[in-house]
Amino acid sequence: MTDFAKHFQKKSWIEVAEDSDFSLQNIPFGIIKNKNFAPRVASRIGDYAIDLLTLFEFGYLDKLGFNKDQFDNNRLNKLMKSGKNGSRILRERLIDLFEISNEELQKNHGHREKVLIPINEVENEMPIQIGDYTDFYSSIEHATNVGTMFRDPNNALLPNWKYIPVGYHGRASSIILSGTPIHRPKGQQKPNEEEPPVFGPSKLLDFELEMAFITFDGKPLGDSISTAEAEDYIFGMVIFNDWSARDIQKWEYVPLGPFLAKNFASSISPWIVTLDALEPFRTAGPKQDPKVFPYLEYQGDKNIDIKLSVELQAENGEPNVICESNYKYMYWNQNQQLAHHTINGCNIKGGDIYASGTISGSEPSSYGSMLELSWRGTKPLKLKDGSERKFIQDHDTITMKAHCEKDGVRVGFGEVTSKVLPAK
Ligand code: MN
Question: Which domains does the chain have, with CATH numbers?
Answer without folding.
Answer: 4-125 (2.30.30.230), 133-421 (3.90.850.10)
